[in-house]
């Protein structure tokens, strides 16, 4: 099953428009004073739906990408979330990658890659842990990197989810059940 | 009548149903752009999806043939189910995933669009829509791997749903992708299937069958002799027929 804390930390809360609430909070005058500090210190960068960019994105912060992007994404220690409207034609290198839209390219998520049910990836995946929700589409090779100690918590979670008929489990190296 | 209709695939319905994927529990009524709520998974089950487990002697035999392979390479031609991928990755396999039936469906819809476009413009060069040329076009864009790059292939019941010409060409291509001694695990319906199911590995002796919205209608029911002809280049063939009219077959190159 999905980790509750992962959702809180990685998937930005959404409004009906699909824009992270962190971005909207600062625009409300009533809450501006208190929200601005929160937004400026914690908010991820956001490329919203309708924006089209070609080029290279580099950095170490988190990024929410819900528009169209073509090029290379390199977030050394940040996480990338491709939103449900996001279309990315790029090789992606990040600490963690969450795909809810479409990605055409190789994804290297150093710690974790999550494909949500609306996610569609054409490209190889390379990570330590992979989570695929039912309905996600993947066309590519999966490389699970070893060298990370087995997370007993994850292992137990994976077995439990596996027994619940098709929930999402995590693939981590060396967590064979037998 | 266009070829999508002949194949039993309506463009409108098809386009809609192509997004109706098997989902985790509690995901069915959610609008697409809100995304799933993993936390809520497990709250309720989508009513249209039925799952059932079946003991699989074919899978047992398939795994037995792969024992001692070490880090083998496996090609899964079904949907990217976490349970199936986990099962093989945890056993040391390098797994490639390609949902070929979905790709075929998308290809047909795309071809239909091109045809309409060509008809609208009264184009000089028309699209060759014979099954063989269609199969060739499809295989130009799919199953693109180096020769002898896999030790095992999970073919599932894919061949039942492809045009016979494409099925034949695809088996020939798969044979090239397999290393000598490589194993193919395939399923065949002994009679025309009433519903549409997808499969995933539960454990080393059983499969889970998930009833899903029809992606493509079944094209053909293969008889034993026809299956043998399709896999004529393989040195061994072994079949297990279940009470549910599903034939599990293993082919060793």
Structure, explained:
The complex is a heterodimer of chains A (178) and B (253). With 178 residues, chain A is of the alpha/beta class. Chain A is 19% helix and 42% strand. Chain A is built from four helices and eleven strands. Chain A has a six-stranded parallel β-barrel. Mean pLDDT of chain A is 71; it is low at 1-41, 148-170 and 172-178. With 253 residues, chain B is α/β, with parallel strands linked by helices. Chain B has one domain (3-20, 48-252): Rossmann fold. Chain B contains nine helices and nine strands. In chain B, α6 packs parallel to α8 (164-177). Chain B is globular. The termini of chain B are far apart. In chain B, 38% of the residues are buried. The interface between A and B is large, with 47 and 40 residues. β10 of chain A pairs antiparallel with β3 (94-98) of chain B.
Share of β-strand residues of chain B: 15-25%
Question: Can you give the helix content of chain B as a percent range?
Answer: 25-40%
> What is the succession of H and E elements of chain A?
HHHEEEEEEEEEEHE
Shape of chain A: globular
Q: List the uncertain runs of chain B.
A: 10-47
Structural class of chain A: alpha/beta
Instruction: Please identify the top-level CATH class of chain B.
Output: Alpha Beta
Structural class based on helices, strands and sheet pairing of chain B: alpha/beta
User: How many strands of chain A?
Assistant: 11
* Helix-strand string of chain B: HHEHEHEHHEHHEEEHEE
Q: Number of helical segments of chain A?
A: 4
Using the CA coordinates, give the radius of gyration of chain B.
19 Å
Q: Give unreliable regions of chain A as ranges.
A: 1-41, 148-170, 172-178
Task: Give a short synopsis of this structure.
With 178 residues, chain A is α/β, with parallel strands linked by helices.
């Amino acid at each position: 099953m999905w980790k509750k804390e992962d959702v809180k930390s990685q998937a930005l809360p959404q409004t009906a428009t699909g824009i992270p609430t962190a971005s909207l909070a600062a625009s409300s005058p009533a809450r501006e004073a208190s929200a601005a500090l929160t937004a400026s210190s914690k908010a991820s960068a956001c490329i919203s739906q309708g924006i089209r960019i070609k080029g290279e994105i580099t950095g170490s912060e988190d990024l929410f990408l819900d528009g169209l992007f073509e090029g290379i994404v390199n977030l050394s220690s940040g996480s990338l979330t491709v939103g449900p409207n996001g279309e990315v034609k790029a090789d992606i290198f990040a600490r963690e990658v969450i795909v809810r839209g479409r990605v055409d390219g190789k994804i290297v998520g150093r710690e974790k890659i999550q494909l949500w049910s609306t996610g569609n990836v054409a490209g190889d995946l390379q990570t330590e842990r992979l989570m695929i929700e039912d309905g996600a589409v993947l066309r590519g090779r999966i490389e699970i990197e070893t060298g990370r100690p087995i997370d007993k918590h994850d292992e137990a979670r994976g077995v439990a989810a596996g027994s619940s008929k098709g929930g999402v489990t995590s693939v981590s190296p060396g967590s064979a059940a037998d | 009548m266009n070829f999508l209709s002949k194949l039993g695939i309506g463009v409108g319905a098809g386009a809609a149903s192509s997004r109706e994927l098997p989902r985790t529990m509690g995901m069915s009524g959610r609008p697409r752009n809100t995304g799933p709520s993993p936390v809520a998974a497990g709250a309720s089950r989508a009513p249209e999806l039925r799952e059932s487990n079946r003991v699989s002697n074919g899978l047992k035999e398939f795994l037995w043939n792969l024992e001692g392979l070490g880090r083998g390479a496996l090609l899964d031609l079904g949907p990217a189910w976490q349970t199936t991928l986990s099962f093989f990755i945890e056993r040391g396999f390098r797994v490639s995933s390609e949902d070929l039936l979905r790709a075929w469906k998308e290809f047909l819809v795309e071809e239909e669009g091109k045809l309409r476009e060509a008809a609208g413009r009264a184009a000089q060069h028309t699209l060759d829509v014979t099954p063989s040329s269609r199969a060739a076009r499809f295989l130009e864009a799919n199953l693109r791997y180096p020769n002898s790059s896999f030790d095992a292939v999970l073919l599932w019941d894919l061949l039942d749903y492809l045009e016979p010409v494409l099925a034949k060409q695809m088996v020939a291509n798969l044979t090239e992708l397999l290393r000598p001694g490589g194993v193919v695990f395939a399923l065949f319906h002994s009679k025309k299937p009433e519903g549409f199911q997808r499969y995933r590995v539960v454990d080393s002796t059983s499969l889970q069958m998930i009833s899903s919205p029809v992606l493509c209608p079944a094209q053909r029911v293969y008889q034993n002799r026809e299956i043998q002809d399709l896999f004529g280049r393989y040195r061994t063939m072994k079949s297990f027929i279940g009470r549910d009219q599903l034939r599990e077959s293993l082919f060793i190159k």
